[in-house]
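Input.
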Amino acid sequence: MKYLIAGPCAIESEKQINEIAKEVANSGANVLRGGAFKPRTSPYTFQGLGEEGLKYLVAAAKANGLKCASEITDASELPLFKDVDILQVGSRNMQNFELLKVLGKQDKPVILKRGFANTISEWLFAAEYITSGGNKNVILCERGIRTFEDSTRFTLDLSAVPVVKSKSNLDIIVDPCHAAGNWEYVIPLSKAAMAAGSDGLMIEVHNDPDHALSDGAQSLTPANFKKLVSEVGK
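Output.
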C-alpha cells in the first residue's frame, strides 16, 4: 500500500497526538494525519487548535518516523504549514479555486478530497487547478458523496477509483471513515477500496473515541486500526 494515512480527525492536545502517532506507526502507517484548522458545520463545535496543533502534529510525526498531513483551509495559513509534509484540501474547499491556484505553486504533495456533491469530472478539473500551476504531486481522495441513502453518513463511491485510474495518472486514496460515519463499517469498506485499486487509505484513529472532540463515532481505536492493517495489508 503506497499510502497508509492515520490519525485523529482533530488534534486535541500534545499528549493525545503523541500517543496516537506511536500507535499508528507501530501498526504500519506511513503518514500521520490530524486537523488543526477544522471547518465544521456548526460554529459551536470544536474548531481546532490552529498553529499550536500543527506544532504538536509535526513533532509527533518526527518522533515516530512518519510524514504528516493536515488540512489547510485558506491560503493565508500557508506560512504556518512550512513544516507539514502534505497539504490537505477538504471536501468543502474542493472548488476553492483561489486556494487551489496557490497550492499549485507549492512543492509539497496535496491531498484533494472530493466534494460531497461533486462529479468525478469536476473533481479532476479541480485537480488541474493545482497541476497546471506546476505542482504535479496531487493525491485524490474519495470520501463519499451525498445521496438519498441515510444509513451511512455519505455513500462511498468506490466506482470513482477505477474511473479516475482510467482518466488520470494521479494517485487516488479512499477515506472510508467520513463515508461510513460508523467505525464498524470502516474495515469492510477499506477492504473494498483496496480491491477496487486504491493506492491507499486515510483512516481516523483516536485513543478515546467516546470522548473525541470531533468525529469519534467514525474513528477506530488503535487496536481496531491494527486489526484493519492485519486484514487489509500494508
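The chain has a mean pLDDT of 95.
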